[in-house]
Write a structure and sequence with these properties.
The protein has 81 residues and is mostly helical. The chain is built from 4 helices and no strands.
């Protein structure tokens, strides 16, 4: 996982309350993908994600990550690791 520990902890603080087993089950029953579940939770968390080059946020993930790295981190949070 490419995300720094500090950014991971911030991401976890914002998203963990939304990455529940019950919510994941609802997405699965609706025929939606796990990726959709993860990124919907990210959006709903209201975390501000910056790029470190002019748009600054709670985390500046896009300065050194892409969506694949973010998805990996969200998956890890959702699985309680």
């Amino acid at each position: 996982m490419k995300i720094t520990q500090q950014d991971y902890e911030t991401l976890k603080r914002f998203t963990a309350p939304l990455l529940t087993t019950e919510r994941k089950r609802q997405y699965t029953e609706a025929g939606l993908s796990e990726k959709r579940f993860l990124f919907d939770a990210l959006y709903q968390s209201k975390i501000k994600i910056g790029n470190g080059a002019g748009i600054h946020g709670d985390v500046n993930l896009y300065a050194y990550c892409n969506d694949t790295h973010i998805e990996t981190a969200l998956r890890k949070i959702a699985n309680g690791v």
